[in-house]
Write a structure and sequence with these properties.
This protein has 2 domains: about 1-55, Multidrug-efflux Transporter Regulator, Chain: A, Domain 2 (Orthogonal Bundle), CATH 1.10.1660; about 70-110. It has 5 helices and 2 strands; from the N terminus they run H-H-E-E-H-H-H. The protein has helices spanning about 5-10, 15-20, 40-55, 60-70, 75-105; strands spanning about 30, 35. It has a two-stranded antiparallel ribbon with strand order 1-2. The longest helix has about 35 residues, at about 75-105.
Length: about 120
Amino acid sequence: MRIGELAARSGVSKDTLRFYEKIGLIAGDRLPNGYRDFRPETVTWLRHVRTAQSLGFTLAEIARHGAELRDAPDSGEALSALLAEKIRLVDERMAALAALRADLTSRAGTACPLRANEAS
């Protein structure tokens, strides 16, 4: 299918599809007239990409793990491992943000909030 049809069927703009192709997230064949031709399963892959993005995965992570997931003997198991790793990273970020919040709270309302906190 050509890029316009893929955009319509996937809900992703043509510019975004061109970008995804440029970074290797999707691949289309070139027809003799220069048009891109995408396989029908690209629509399903783009749904996976959008879901992964909504779960906090970056395009780089999706591109890096996409082939891994497609080639895994049990993609459910492989995906569960990726999700567990993402949960670990989220937990680390939450702890760092909680520490930052505590530091900001301890400085708020002080005479000089940007002065190094001696309690740290």
